[in-house]
Amino acid sequence: MKRLLSALLLLWLAGCHPAPDAPSVAKTPADSGAIIPGAEQLPEYLPLLQGKRVGLLVNQTSLTGNQHLVDVLLANKVNIVSIFAPEHGFRGDHDAGATVSSGIDSKTGIPLLSLYGANKAPSAEQMQALDIVIFDIQDVGVRYYTYISSMHYLMQAAADYNVAMLVLDRPNPNGRYLDGPVLDLAFQSFVGMHPIPLLHGMTVGELAQMIKGERWINQAEQLQLTVVPVANYQRNMRYSLPVPPSPNLPNDQAIALYPSLGFFEATPLSVGRGTPFPFQVLGYDKFSLGEFAFTPVATPGAAMNPPLKDTTAKGQDLRQVNAGGLDLSYLINWQRLFAANNATFFNSPGFMDKLAGGDTLRQQIEQGLSEQQIRASWQNGLEAFAKQRQPYLLYP
């Protein structure tokens, strides 16, 4: 397959041209050193789509240059049968946890099929109408971010119904970190499907290969998986996302803080949902660790009923901190403050355990362990995972 794709690429470079009505997709030559996501390398995968009935799991991040992948493929005469929508919807305008409904895309007339909510996996009827499915969504490299869970369910459906799967890879903005507890499968949920660390340091393409190779789906050997890697990418590179991956991760700072602040969704605190700076602040209305004040309000498409809605919260402004990786000090310090005020910190302990991939982290924090002690308890799991993932890595 690699030889075939290489030959096709050479032909294309020698003078093959798209159809007259195909869009001109801005491409940076691979030898320029610029990062080129898989979706922008059309010669590598268009031949796989010719004459095929195609389904796509995509959202607002699925761009090639400044055009959406759906539009580019349609202009190249690809037969798109259906578009699957993950959490936040096809256009990325749904709040976290909000219902994503099926329907018809108003721009293209293509059926939109929701893979979030009660129906997380495509149906037999939907898959039998396809020859190949494409996954192209920008992830942020944090286990509880649910796009990789949607990818898992699509992989399972592709294996079940003998449909080929193509993953167009994108960089991981948190890819240089390998940190946090490895998920205990007894706590498996949609916010944690795989026995991987909270920060796994892998792209979705690498993770897809691992899901297949480690047989984390049934009938994994039947899955015809192809990954188009990112060109000129190394996992320690800093990568600024051109499009917010979801409504409440609007910028690089929020994405960098998300591994540390996501746990606060299981507490009474606000992380800034319903403000202009979600996942960049921490605050509470009854007592606080700082004097920065903010008031969450209903925000269509981002947070209609945020924690502490219409209530002044006080706490920490993290918009300018040097963020990166997993910082437990926020959890530890706020839990100690709540304990000193005889208040319950983890008011959704079951959800906290799902986010953490087990109940150990919550218990360690409640028992007053230091960050150093907690981190020491992860090391064996991280070392084992680092070896386990090695065969599936695509980038140095």
Explain this structure.
The N terminus is likely disordered. This protein has twelve helices and 14 strands. Helix 1 packs across helix 2 and helix 5 packs across helix 6. The longest helix is centred in the middle third of the chain and has 14 residues. Helix 5 links the parallel strand 7 and strand 8. The protein has a seven-stranded mixed sheet with strand order 5-6-4-1-7-8-11, sandwiched between helices. Strands 12-14-13 form a three-stranded antiparallel sheet, with no helix packed on it.
Helix and strand run: HHEEEHEEEHEHEEEHEHEEEHHHHH
Largest sheet: 7 strands, mixed
Radius of gyration (Å): 22 Å
**Proportion of residues in β-strands:** 5-15%
CATH class designation of the largest domain = Alpha Beta
User: How many beta-strand elements?
Assistant: 14
Unreliable sequence segments:
1-30, 92-100
**How much helical structure, as a percent, in the residues?**
25-40%
Integer count of domains:
2
The rough form would be described as globular
Please name the CATH architecture of the largest domain. 3-Layer(aba) Sandwich
Mean of pLDDT? 89
> What class would the helix/strand composition place it in?
alpha/beta
Distance between the termini: 23 Å
- Determine the CATH topology of the largest domain: Rossmann fold
Q: Main sheet: which strands, in order across? A: 5-6-4-1-7-8-11
Name of the CATH superfamily of the largest domain: Uncharacterised protein PF07075, DUF1343
Q: How large is the count of helical segments?
A: 12
